[in-house]
Amino acid sequence: MPDRASTDLRNWAGNIRFSPSSFEQPATLDEARAAVAAAPRVRVLGSGHSFNTIADTDAVMLSLTGIEPDVRISALDGTVTASGWLTYARLGAAVHRAGFALHNLASLPHISVAGSIATGTHGSGDANGNLATAVAAIEFIGPDGELRTVARGDEDFPGSVVHLGALGVVHTVTLDLLAGFEMRQYVYDGLTYEAVVDHFDELTSAAYSTSLFTAWGAEPAFQFWVKQRTADQSHPFPKANWYGAPLADGPRHPVPGVDPAACTVQQGQTGPWLERLAHFRPEFTPSAGDELQSEYLIDRADAPAAIEALAGIGRLLAPVTQISEIRTMAGDDLWLSPAYGRDTVGLHFTWVSDVEAVRPAMLAVETALAPFAARPHWGKLFSMPIGEVRSRYPRMGDFEKLRERVDPEGKFANHFSTAVVGGAAL
Ligand SMILES: Cc1cc2nc3c(=O)[nH]c(=O)nc-3n(C[C@H](O)[C@H](O)[C@H](O)COP(=O)(O)OP(=O)(O)OC[C@H]3O[C@@H](n4cnc5c(N)ncnc54)[C@H](O)[C@@H]3O)c2cc1C
Prior knowledge:
The chain has helices at about 30-40, 90-95, 115-120, 155-160, 195-200, 200-205, 305-310, 315, 355-370, 385-390, 395-405, 415-420, and strands spanning about 20-25, 40-45, 60, 70-75, 80-85, 100, 135-140, 145-150, 170-175, 180, 180-190, 210-215, 220-230, 240, 245, 270, 290-300, 320-330, 345-350, 375. It contains twelve helices and 20 strands. Mean pLDDT is about 95; it is low at about 1-5. The protein has an eight-stranded antiparallel beta sheet with strand order 16-11-13-12-18-19-17-20. A five-stranded antiparallel beta sheet has the order 4-5-9-7-8. Strands 1-3-2 form a three-stranded parallel beta sheet, covered by helices on one side. By secondary structure, it is of the alpha+beta class. Among the domains are: about 75-180, 2-Layer Sandwich (Uridine Diphospho-n-acetylenolpyruvylglucosamine Reductase, domain 3); about 185-245 and about 290-380, Alpha-Beta Plaits (2-Layer Sandwich). Keywords: Oxidoreductase.
């Protein structure tokens, strides 16, 4: 979380220094509406976990965290309506207490719900859409300070959920709930590259959510994380090994050398979804802490070939890669979702925190993945030309029209969103 009291306002990774003309933290919804109406341009800061300039602005930066949190669960509708600025950790705890579950979490629960949805943030699981696919309705403060709700079934809905912060200030989101469930998590060490490429579908479909971790190099080996719903009797017992890769003999952290105390419980101990779906526990620093990240989302049909292409540059990647993660997600119909229209595989890189050292590796990854029409994660670092990124979204033109209609003067534009989806001439 950036230090809001300081004028040196930065993102979580510290690689972006925000440069707003003012930082405002309204204490009520009415104050937030008034602030939006009065501002020439405005951008909301969520929990600041994006690695690029998507949250930055040279105008008014707004944080909604001063507003009293609101969580309303409707057992009848199977939904929760909550303040968008809440983190998944806080929202998840309330949902769990009420006996319900969210369908998925990202690797960390520290991130805000609205910020995550805005960027198409995802967890893993062949049948699990990204986090935005749980949205049933989203309530925006519009450029005039008026509230506007877009709900599933509305014409504007598929364009409005993953919005890069360009369609307004999200006040509340309504998310679909599942009945609460228990899970157990297993980790396997040392899965070979051949096993991953030859048996990719079998591995990723082995449980509700799976992840493959590797640090690349000349002969990449993979750690295989399996998050199983306890009631799922298709795999009632853990396999002793996967293609020779044994069950880990203790808890693991995905980043080599980091204390696994920061990770959710493994070794098959049953526990609630909230304490298994994410990799990292809310009370600890997630991931390596000192890092940069990139991620590229491809059609899952291309996954074995894309992994092969990355293995081909494995020696170049290893010195700047702390860890890479491969995850799956179901395709969706949300216009700017990186999983739009195709079942998707995410190829993620936790880099060392040295932009200059990382740049050539990022470029090499983008070149290696060029044949696969990769879509970069909206909240992470990439160097592909924006025109190329735009061309990967068939509904980009429709999104621009929607943005023009709901925000004709570009009040919610910043440099990042203007480059991608048009808006104010900045
Ligand atoms: C350690 C770490 C691990 C990560 N793991 C994952 C992962 O597992 N999967 C994954 O997909 N991503 C992951 N990410 C990336 C992260 O999920 C995204 O960057 C996400 O957008 C972060 O949410 P945030 O609230 O911090 O957003 P911010 O970075 O604060 O903002 C992102 C965008 O959302 C907009 N926004 C935020 N709140 C609002 C609002 N109320 N109204 C309107 N617009 C708003 C901002 O203006 C900005 O455009 C990870 C990041 C880190 C640092």
